[in-house]
């Protein structure tokens, strides 16, 4: 089934981490519109996640909620199993979207800041992928989509621990694509400046629109479209799609 068929994900079940709001919410809605059942993971944003689930139901879709702090490795390792229990079936799409984006340069980043960002942004996607692969049903497609950042391909000196975690996620995407083939395809989206941080902290400077080759900021819907493209292209794995209006160039 292809994307031309709007409901090309009917019979599939997705877990989206950090899916309650912002880009995660748009990914949840896009998956539901394409026919998938969606398990929405949240941590602090329970109300937002409930509103996102209600939005899915308005679309005629099925959504379930699950919470958990992905900084805790036991929580990350158990999340796919709990999500499957919640929706009553195996998952076959995992979207690693949850992330911590904290300022700090190489000179000032603390051990705690380092550990938190490696734990949520890199270790959790690994533990989730491991558990996801274990719980798959006997046959059918299976996909992991990692939400990455253009900084993973072209690191700067800002947001130091975050950037290193996303460089690691780029490696994880490629290694998992080999390790989990042929059963699971693993791809990533490398985003440019889609949404500024909710609470901008020191060190965040949004690239001016005029500096982007396409002179437009990528939107959450652009990110969702790229995710659906990857989910509908069965010969693609280990691939990075930049959704950045050409910023990587
Ligand atoms: N925004 C952009 O322009 C941009 C640019 C480049 C890359 N990206 C990437 O795209 C993805 C989505 O971006 P975004 O800006 O929408 O993300 P975000 O708002 O910074 O974070 C998404 C969610 O991550 C969850 N999260 C944070 N810490 C967690 C923890 N300890 N345990 C569990 N969940 C936790 C939060 O869920 P709760 O709110 O429920 O706590 C949060 O809502 C991220 O992976 C990000 O790195 C975004």
List keywords for this structure.
249 residues; 7 strands; 16% strand; binds NADP nicotinamide-adenine-dinucleotide phosphate
Kindly summarize this structure in a few lines.
The protein is 39% helix and 16% strand.
Written description of the protein model:
With 249 residues, the chain is an alpha/beta fold. It has a single domain, classed as Rossmann fold (3-Layer(aba) Sandwich). It has 6 helices and 7 strands. α1 packs across α6 and α3 (73-87) runs parallel beside α4. The protein is globular and about 45 Å long. NADP nicotinamide-adenine-dinucleotide phosphate (NAP) binds next to α1 and β5.
Number of helices: 6
Question: CA-to-CA gap between the ends?
Answer: 33 Å
- What's the alpha carbon Rg, rounded to whole Å? 17 Å
Mean pLDDT, to the nearest integer, reads 95
Top-tier CATH class: Alpha Beta
Give start-end ranges of low-pLDDT stretches.
none
As for the CATH topology, it is Rossmann fold
Structural class: alpha/beta
CATH architecture: 3-Layer(aba) Sandwich
**Which ligands occur here?**
NADP nicotinamide-adenine-dinucleotide phosphate
What portion of residues is helical? 25-40%
Sheet of most strands: 7 strands, parallel
Count of strand segments = 7
Shape: globular
Number of domains: 1
What order do the strands of the largest sheet run in, or round the barrel if closed?
3-2-1-4-5-6-7
- Beta-strand content bin: 15-25%
Helices and strands, with pairings:
Layout: E1 13-16, H1 22-33, E2 37-42, H2 46-58, E3 63-67, H3 73-87, E4 93-96, H4 111-134, E5 142-149, H5 160-179, E6 184-191, H6 220-231, E7 240-243
Parallel strand pairs: 1-2, 1-4, 2-3, 4-5, 5-6, 6-7
NADP nicotinamide-adenine-dinucleotide phosphate binds at residues 18, 20-24, 42-45, 69-71, 97-101, 120, 147, 149, 191, 193-195.
